[in-house]
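Read as amino acids, tokens; as here:

___
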Amino acid sequence: MRKSDFSESMRVLERRKREAGAESTADLYRAVRNRFGRYCMKERLLLQEVTAARVTGFRAALRKEGLRVNTVNSYMSSLRAMYNAACREAGGRWKENPFAGLRLKREETKKRAVPVEVVERIAGLNLRGKPELAGAVDLALFSFMACGMPFTDLVHLTRENIQDGGRLLVYRRRKTGVLIQIGINTGMRQLIERYARPDSVYLFPVLPADARHETYKAALALHNRHLKEIGRLLGLAVPLTSYVFRHTWASEAYRCHVEISVISQALGHTTEKMTRNYLARLAPEEIIKANEKVSHRVEKLVGKWRKPYL
């Protein structure tokens, strides 16, 4: 590969991300590479051909397509990251930095939380005869009761994540690697027992043991389709997705006057260095107390009479 071959460099960077397990970033890099190549109308692009005019034009073209501001920003940020990495390997930039004047200001997005009363309504739904929707509800309720656990972490939980005699659920965020320790409340335990299968490596049998990233993405898309259908059944204005329950837990915890530092640790956030240093001193008991305040109303509705739907 020629060091100035930006197209090939982008492929290499994508492959490295995938090999490192950063599948979502790899997917984003692939999308940016394909879109930027189409915009430039070149299958092979050299580093010196990445000019300020092309960068500005690419951004304008993305906006013209109707992509949201934050999506455009994500594409441009990734393109810049790949360009900088390619320049480092090539020994330096070609003349001026084409991203020098690029300013990426994030747009405030619409809040995705719903009132906790909506989660109670979802927990109380009678979905007999609709096993796919019932299974989606169970996963969503577990996510909520597990301090807003993301879908990717939830479906990769194994028996090894249950520790301290069944009292704690201990795992690392797949996105950030942050260690999370949360208490297993009654509702969570009931759902774990409901879906326990000796032939499944995971606590919830959503994915096969040898699932690839594409299989996971398909499972997430199906889960969100089921949640949207549930939202329509309830006449909700906010489209339900897996992340609604994460936002809802955080919002309800804040409403219950849980300290922001505790909420941040429960969610596994790592955006502020001072917060991370402070959170390292918190014990799991603090998060257990916080989750009890938020989840106690919902966990009472997770009755043992319900059958597993997955």
Strands lie at 162-163, 168-172, 179-183. The longest helix spans residues 69-90. The radius of gyration is 22 Å.
